[in-house]
Write a structure and sequence with these properties.
mainly alpha, two-stranded antiparallel ribbon, 9 helices, 2% strand, elongated
Length: 222
């Protein structure tokens, strides 16, 4: 089975999609498949053929891939150089971003295309999590740079970014974050004595958003 031509093309197409873009160029897939066959399935050589090809450095490939929630959370923690003291908030964040750990139902695992992860709601959730990651202690972490704000996120998706995939949803998420900042739901206090648990804290935040009258239509807590 490993030597069947369909195997070479199937694996090569998945690798090209993973490293280049969601619509793999047929010519590169064929070259990668030929390398797979010639090297008796040497994945290292197949990947080498992909990442050294002209397609890998083309304009169409630049910023063409969207990180999955797991990749985004992991790179955010690394990029902000934070110390994680408690993993449960990050696991909960992945649940809210629709990629719970080991939670994929189909045997093929989670999707590796932007369509599965790009929406205004998903980008807003990512931006909100990024803000919390940048604030010391917000997710059971110690932030090394608490001054990180909205501006770097907004700059990624402004009109000049040329990002046709994430530009629109990114700008909409930015507007939503600015609205939340202006109203600041944390100003709305409550005399309710909430239990000390992650779920109770989520319920308190939802109540604050409702009181802030920012147009909340639906909310969920895990």
């Amino acid at each position: 089975m490993a030597q069947h031509p369909s195997t070479a093309r199937f694996i090569s197409e998945k690798l090209v999609r993973r490293f280049l873009n969601d619509d793999p160029p047929d010519a590169l897939v064929e070259r990668a498949a030929a390398t797979f066959t010639a090297t008796d399935g040497d994945i290292q050589e197949v990947v080498r053929a992909i990442v050294t090809s002209p397609d890998f450095f083309s304009r169409e490939t630049y910023r063409a891939k969207v990180k999955t929630p797991l990749e985004w959370v992991a790179s955010g923690v690394r990029g902000l150089d934070v110390e994680v003291r408690e993993m449960r908030p990050l696991v909960g964040a992945l649940n809210r971003l629709d990629q719970p750990l080991y939670g994929a139902q189909p045997p093929t695992g989670y999707a590796d295309v932007a369509e599965a992860w790009v929406s205004s709601g998903a980008l807003l959730a990512r931006a909100e999590l990024g803000q919390r990651l940048a604030r010391a202690g917000a997710l059971g972490i110690t932030g090394r740079d608490p001054s990180v704000g909205l501006e770097p996120f907004a700059a990624l998706y402004d009109e000049d970014s040329g990002d046709v995939v994430l530009g629109g949803p990114g700008r909409e998420a930015t507007r939503a974050i600015k609205l939340l900042r202006e109203n600041d739901p944390r100003r709305y206090e409550s005399d309710v004595d909430y239990p000390r648990s992650p779920f109770a804290h989520s319920m308190m935040e939802i109540a604050q958003l409702i009181k802030a009258d920012v147009g909340l239509e639906i909310a969920f807590a895990d």
